[in-house]
Amino acid sequence: VIVEVIAIGTELLLGEIVNSNVAVVGRRLADEGFDTHFHVTVGDNLERMVAATRQAIDRADAVILTGGIGPTQDDVTREALCIVGDRTMERDEAHAELIRDRITRALGSVVPSTLRMADHPSGTETLRNRNGVALGIAMVHDGVPVYALPGVPSEMAVMLDEQVLPRLRAHAGEPAVLRSRLLRTWGWGESRVADALDDLFATANPSIAFLVDGVEVRVRISAKAADAERAEALIDRVADEVRARLGPVVFGTDHETVEALVARHLDGRGWRLGTVEVATLGAVASSFARTAVAAGRFAGALVVPADEATATDPVADVGALLDRGADALEADVLVAVGRADVGGGADQDVRRVTMGVRTPHRRAVRTVTLLGDAPRVRIYARGTALHLARLAVSGVWWDD
Amino acid sequence: VIVEVIAIGTELLLGEIVNSNVAVVGRRLADEGFDTHFHVTVGDNLERMVAATRQAIDRADAVILTGGIGPTQDDVTREALCIVGDRTMERDEAHAELIRDRITRALGSVVPSTLRMADHPSGTETLRNRNGVALGIAMVHDGVPVYALPGVPSEMAVMLDEQVLPRLRAHAGEPAVLRSRLLRTWGWGESRVADALDDLFATANPSIAFLVDGVEVRVRISAKAADAERAEALIDRVADEVRARLGPVVFGTDHETVEALVARHLDGRGWRLGTVEVATLGAVASSFARTAVAAGRFAGALVVPADEATATDPVADVGALLDRGADALEADVLVAVGRADVGGGADQDVRRVTMGVRTPHRRAVRTVTLLGDAPRVRIYARGTALHLARLAVSGVWWDD
Question: For residue A6, which phi and psi values (nearest 5 degrees)?
Fold first, then answer.
């Protein structure tokens, strides 16, 4: 099944925003075993949107459109689908009422154009949007399903997973189940992980892919089979082999994020975790506290401006941060992240960050070298601090 | 002059990398006043690359291709151009010698396929690549110039600026420039802004577009003219009209972000800003402190766990947060964000957040109603808190 993806938005053509939506759609389609031959980006222009959609219907088996279903005058995806499908516009009165209610409650009144988000071409299915008010659309034309999703990434991704992909699978008529498992690793770079798993990479089913996210490398194992049980058995075999080769570098599976694992250990001991952060500006605390499982184990955070962390010895600095945290927060476990100091000679993109963890039993500090610009260094430092916290609360310590 | 952009690479279709190249090309073309109707992404497939290039030549005045000119077997842009242009492949022997020299010096030997980077269709111009070894190609077919550039972003961007855009300007024979201005607004929803500017939206030059980012709506005004001065004059007229209609809802222009404006006001008074945050988990502090202009005005932050903000009266709660901030931080201005409480009856997605600002002169609190899931509410609350801080430090207060 070949799926064409059309992104709509003049701001994409003008390069004002990078088109991350098509990458998300492309990755999810590839995960599910669908092929994609073309991604097309078109501006907020009715005629060209119609032309692009018609061409996609001609050369693909299904079409996914993102964008152009908001409330403003330049949102014309609904109109384009009416022309392509030779249909009239209908309003979903129940949804219009819901929009009127929600917006009125929030803003006091509603402008008429907002209700356009309840419109859809006649005889098409509407797709519920859990994270926004614009309805998605599922239209079948000449036997080709066309799905219109919002351009807002968070709304688009959920609707893709929950509403479009199941419909696509049904349309494809293939009974094959696809199952995936994520092995989460920390401690080795992508190349080293890839090298260690080189031969496993050659097989098509199960297939292996690597995803780098901050300081973690995630190994995704995907298998297709007639039923879930067989797919899981195929995955089990490869997952065991990966674990045997990577050892404790594999720290979690699927939803076992580093935050969830830290929270689990804290829970077992009745501890709460707080942070004192310079380079990461509160990102360690925020990562931890915004996961539902960890929120109840969060003791608060202190963000310290870089100009207050002035000791020449970064290890002493982190010690002082841990002491400040102990005074300010009711925390059993404290994580401290010091300043990002330029390191490694003339290279502005090498930073040394010292961080430390203290539990009721012990404390330890570690200095890490991180590569990248300021935003990347913050992401890497946040991830490293969370992993050091994970090791410490699970009783695995390191030498200062 | 309409320019079509074709990005080549199966990894783009699979979403393994986000297509930042087309955004760069799109932005540069818009800056120069060229129009773009379509961006097309196609995999490393000869037949589909030929089809996409032929279609682009048919419907555009010039074509820019990125990717597919490296040394490996899946790099087939050169072959596609030979087919499209009905030409044979030629080797630039001088460049082949240069590649042989450089690679041999770096790696000790050179594999024959590497020399393909010196190939180009007969009768086409080669484009020098200062940051790499693959030659770019400039081919004219049916009067339409087609430029092939590398997919490596750093190589592509330099060759675009130094070699493609000057050729495009010469080809267009027009001195037209395009200028854009961003008016940043806060306080009205997208629909209300759009309604207020409805008639301005109808004109093509200057053109108006809306971009929503969190709680802000940005109005972009773009104008084309023979020279920059005339373009700016066209923009001025529309910008004045927009300001007249939206009033103080317009808070900044172009790079005047809310953080930059808060920092400017703080700077004028020698003040530093700290935050005490519950619902936003430190995001207000982090947004502020990570902008270079504001970092020196940052006094630190306290993130308070939601279970510690337990007063039944959210206004009292925010008062208590402001007091805690005064104790813990050396801040002249404090911003406090309380809990996100479920509000508006059964709707889980309506949250009420109370926030407050305190300067050496005055303090005020405001409760806002925000719509969305937890991550969106955090983004909206962060933006609202920054804007309340902006009002307060510029001496504009509101009633509690």
Answer: -120, 120
Q: What is the CA radius of gyration of chain A?
A: 25
- ω into residue A206 within 30 of 0, thus cis? yes
* pLDDT of res. A371: 83
- At A28-53, the pLDDT tens digits run 898 787 889 999 999 999 999 999 99
Residues in B touching A103 (Cβ below 8 Å): 189
Single-letter amino acid, residue A278: V
pLDDT tens digits for range B266-315: 999 999 999 999 999 999 999 999 988 888 899 999 999 998 876 678 89
Q: Are B321 and B261 in contact (CB under 8 A)?
A: no
Averaged over B162-189, what is the pLDDT?
Answer: 85
Question: What pLDDT is recorded for position B14?
Answer: 86
Closest-CA distance, B123 to chain A, in angstroms, reads 30
Contact A27 B36 (CB under 8 A): no
**CB contacts, 8 Å: A105 with chain B:** 344, 347, 350, 369
Q: Which residues of A touch B40 (CB under 8 A)?
A: 38-41
ipTM of the complex: 0.73
Q: How far apart are CA B284 and CA B378, in angstroms?
A: 9
CA dihedral of residues A139, A140, A145, A148 (deg, nearest 10):
-10
Touching B: A residues 216-255, CB under 8 Å: none
Contacts of B20 in chain A (CB under 8 A): 18
Contact B15 A22 (CB under 8 A): yes
A74: contact with B, CB 8 A cutoff:
yes
Dihedral angle of Cα B317, B318, B324, B329, to the nearest 10 degrees: 160
Strand partners of residue A49: none
User: What is the Cα–Cα distance from A37 to A60, expressed in whole angstroms?
Assistant: 8
**B195, B374, B375: residue with CB nearest A113:** B195
- Contact present, A13 and B209 (Cβ < 8 Å): no
Alpha carbon distances (Å) from B255 to A17, B215, B248? 16, 17, 17
What are the residues facing A181 on neighbouring strands?
A: A221
pLDDT class for A86, splitting at 50, 70, 90?
A: very high
pTM above 0.80, yes or no: no
Q: Which tokens sit at B315? A: 């206004």
Q: Got the DSSP string for A227-294?
A: SHHHHHHHHHHHHHHHHHHHGGGEEEETT--HHHHHHHHHHHHT--EEEEESTTTTHHHHHHHTSHHH
Q: State which H helix or E strand residue B178 sits in.
A: strand B177-186
Interatomic CA distance for residues B366 and B312, integer angstroms = 16
